[in-house]
Amino acid sequence: MFIGRKELVFSFILFFITAPILVFGEQNNFLKAGDEYFSQRNKVIQPSKSLKLVEKALENYKKALKSGENIDVVLFKYARGLNFKNNYLPVNISESKKIKEYKFAIDLLEKEYKKHPESKYINYSLALLWGRYGELIGVLNAARKGVAGKIKKYAENLYRIDKGFNGYSAGLILGRLHYKTPSIPFLLSWPDLKKSKKFLQEVLEKGTEDSVNWAKFFLADTLYKLGETKKAGELYNDLLNMKINKSLYFEELKLKKDCRKRMQELNIK
Questions:
Q1: What's the pLDDT tens digit per position in 29-74?
Q2: 85-114 pLDDT, tens per residue?
Q3: What phi and psi values does residue 93 have, to the nearest 5 degrees?
Q4: What single DSSP character describes residue 89?
Q5: Strands, E, within the chain: which ranges?
Q6: Sign of the alpha-carbon torsion through 151, 157, 159, 165
Q7: Of 1, 4, 146, 226, which sits most exposed with the smallest number of CB within 10 A?
């Protein structure tokens, strides 16, 4: 059958109109699938089963990235999935693999940051993953790479753009950063335990359950270092005795484990 010029032109126009819709629709399918897998992560108590669910979520988020749409949101979800997989699940994943996965995501995020420096999703994800990356590569390597400065930059950006984002995560990150980063005269003079206390108290007052509980633990560490040992002990004990929320099962399981370990280290009863 002969196709006339008008029909051919119309076919080309129709293709260019519908192609973006098809691609965007496909991305939505991948995002929905990723979100569904990720939402199931705490509904199983076997770490290996949770790991499989999170890995399926990450696979779908990776596929969603290929569409080129809403990249900052997709990367945020991908970073959140990586953080859960490598930080909260009690499974045997090598440090080298974690480093490789974090660096892969960080490189994508840094590239996207150049295009969208005001994205709360990008700034949060970079502050979070640089922190996890820094924990794995060691203090000296982290110092050489300026990891603390990077975390500070992105967390402060987030605090300025939307400090309430994701349960006041900016304050949670900054509070922990001021506690963990050593103050070095003439080289690194910005770490301040009083600022750590202030940021974490704000999260306690305004955050969501997951951020509030971690803020309580981080604040206990900060208070202990400031000499407020009685209050620190009360916070540690509150966490140790809390009932685990099933929707945050693995996160709070790790929190209680970390709290128990800290109390043993400090000989707090």
A1: 999 999 999 999 999 999 999 999 999 999 999 999 987 788 999 9
A2: 999 999 999 999 999 999 999 999 999 999
A3: -120, 125
A4: S
A5: none
A6: negative
A7: 1
Number of domains composing the chain: 1
On whether residue 107 sits in a domain, the answer given is no
| Domain extent for 236 | 166-269
The single-letter DSSP state of residue 186 is: T
Residue 159 lies in a domain: no
Whether residue 117 is contained in a domain is answered as: no
Mean pLDDT of 220-227: 98
User: Looking at the domain assignment, is residue 148 inside a domain?
Assistant: no
Q: 145 vs 138, 232, 248, CA distance in Å?
A: 11, 33, 33
Q: Assign residue 183 a region: left if phi > 0, alpha if psi is -120 to 50, beta otherwise?
A: beta
Joined tokens for residue 23: 């691609």
pTM above 0.85, yes or no: yes
